[in-house]
Amino acid sequence: MDLFFHEASLLLFNSVLIPVALFSAAFYLLAVLGIRHRTPARYQGVAVKQWPSVTIQIPTKNEQVAIRCAEHCLRFDYPGRFQIIIGDDSTDSEVSRAIDAFARQHPNVTVTRRGSTFGYKPGNLNHMLQFSKGEIIAIFDSDFLPPTDFLTRIVKPFVADEKVACVQAKWDYLNIGQTRVSRFASSILMVYHHLLAPINERLGVSLLFGSAEAVRASALRELGGWKDWSMTEDVEFTLRALRAGYKSVYLSDLSVPGEVPFNLRGLSKQQKRWAYGNAKAFFDNSRWILFGGRFSLLQKAALLFTLVGYISAPFLVVFMLLGIVTWFTGTPGVIDVAKFSLTTGQIFLINSGFLAAALVALHREKRARMIISVVGASLTYGIWVSISVFDGLMKALARKKMQWYMIRKAGNESLTLPSA
Question: What's the total number of domains in the chain?
Answer without folding.
Answer: 1
